[in-house]
Specification:
Helix content: 10-25%
Largest sheet: 6 strands, antiparallel
Distance between the termini: 29 Å
Number of domains: 1
CATH topology: Cyclic Phosphodiesterase, Chain: A
Number of strands: 10
Shape: globular
Structural class: alpha+beta
Length: about 180
Amino acid sequence: MPERLVPTRLFIAVRPSAAAADLVDRISRRESPCVRWLPQEQWHVTLRFLGDAEPDEVVAALAAVPWSRVLPVNVTLGPATEVLGESVVMVPAVGCDDLVDRVVAATGGLGQETEDRPFVGHLTLGRFRDEPPAGSIGTPISATFQVDEVLLMASQTRSGGAVHEIVARFPLVAEGASG
């Protein structure tokens, strides 16, 4: 049984499907001492970063959301890799706005304050110092995947980079859907 991580940071996210992740994985990510590429198993679209928060309180808040009335959503990645801020190579992700609104409404009083800026959906490929790695910006990508669950994730920073663990899953199931 894997060792459970002690959560140091919490965030709420969705993950791309295996097929979408395989398409993203084709994007060239040249090794460089000035860039740290994230492994595929850590790719996600953050709906809300909570930082230090009590996991049980966040689980309770998210469990109160009527997910059984929320239809799965389609998220589209692309059209090309971009820079976000001053140090992130990412793929834009569109289609999570309704989920973000629900998550923020449910967890507004938990963790760090919500950011006072528009949500920018993205899948982080890597972080760089100084300049983005050559050939990493403007690479065309087009992938769509269906989100059928929202995840509460814990992140712990280790010497080799961050390690993520799923703390709780919240399935999106349309009411009356057969299973």
